[in-house]
Amino acid sequence: MASRDVAFWKEAINDEMDSIMSNQTWELVDLPPGSKPIGCKWVFRRKYHTNGMIQTFKARLVAKGFKQREGIDYFDTYAPVARTTSIRILFALASIHNLFVHQMDVKTAFLNGDLNEEVYMEQPEGFVLLGNENKVCKLVKSLYGLKQAPKQWHEKFDHAILSDGFRHNNVDKCLYSKTCDDYMVIVCLYVDDMLVLSDDMRGIIETKRFLSSTFKMKDLGEVDTILGIKVKRNSGGYALNQTHYIEKVVSKFSHLKIKDANTPFDSSIKLEKNDGRSVAQLEYASAIGSLMYAAQCTRADISFAVSKLSRFTSNPSVEHWKAIGRVLGYLKNTKELSLQYSKFPAIIEGYSDASWISSVGDNLSTTGWVFTLGGGAVSWGSKKQTCISHSTMEAEFIALAATGKEAEWLRDLMMDIPFTANNVSTVLIHCDSQATLARAYSGVYNGKSRHISIRHEYVRQLIQNGIISISFVRSSGNLADPFTKPLTRDLVRITSRGMGLKLLK
């Protein structure tokens, strides 16, 4: 209230209170004997456009949910959100089928949920009613900060949209689809951010009209930014980039004296566990979290480096910090890269790879996989394997089982999306190990590989059921290579382009 922006903050506070009161979120009552009210506080935040300009001043009244007691004030808290993989697949399909993609935002989403439990809260600061100072707010609707708020909101939205003829996707419960005579519509929900896709503008208009009549919505028009990812549409399709986010992260860790780098990880360095004192452990965890968000959304090329470095979060050393600086230097040098999707190819292709005993100290191998659709990566992973493999073939087979598992999920997702339901074929997975291919198609079980027998049976089952097929690819053409080991500058460029990471024209 003492800042020069006080007028903007007051307006934001009044907007928030108007939403709460119009929603009839609480009623003033005397506190029943034996009950304890939870507190509340105001949270203030400036929201920015991706170009750094202030978008809005946001004031949020938040309940102190950390004081709630399980079994008394709340019971279940689980609420699903859409996977980022699902969001990328939708943009790839929008590029292939030339779909319209619009965006909507639910105003004060968590205020919509109905509460089943009795929760009492102190009156908010600055809005204590004269003459009723001793009364408390009995919450009728959920409020931000409550443990059960996300679950209650999702239940309310779920019930509303299903009543309009939409139905769930079988594998991602935050994807909803509806088929009409003239158009098909998909709605993707991530907490309060919403994507609406359709092959006809009428489908989008009708869906927006229904949602706006049910909830207080903000129509953001054609999609521009979703979850901090900038979306651009061109003649070829959609492109996703995180240039602004990367600039923010590099600026946050500028004290590391970041130098531009051409690769995300130095292949000559062998990182080991630190047995000495940890160096800025909390800041290291923050850096890993910041890099992980980029790696999970659009920057598949840093997945291996982030996966490797995250293993030392509990006790980082100076060497680990140097490697963090290297990843940031690579991102700084390549911040303009976008994950681009086009019309072709219109089928999902997968790549699987493993590097044998890549983890110093525990002798575990690394699994890597990537799936592409519409010329861009839609799903990827770089993970340390959980069991010791006795040979390269075994490591590759464990990786193939993990890739097959993801392929099955992707195929099930696509089979339940109206635009692709009738065109989903067997998912082709490329593998660079002839021995693994022979083992996958062999019906003979060798008792020497007992520890991977379940994976062997699982992969064979996927092949027999027509879910996946496996073909050989040379290591030089395997797009999963950068997910298992550090590569040279030229190979990083080639594999990045293969995954759709290019400069926007």
From TrEMBL:
Pfam families: RVT_2
InterPro entries named among the record's database cross-references: DNA/RNA_pol_sf, RVT_2
Boundaries of every Reverse transcriptase Ty1/copia-type domain copy: 23-264
Signal sequence coordinates: none
Annotated protein name in UniProt: Reverse transcriptase Ty1/copia-type domain-containing protein
Organism whose genome encodes this protein: Vitis vinifera
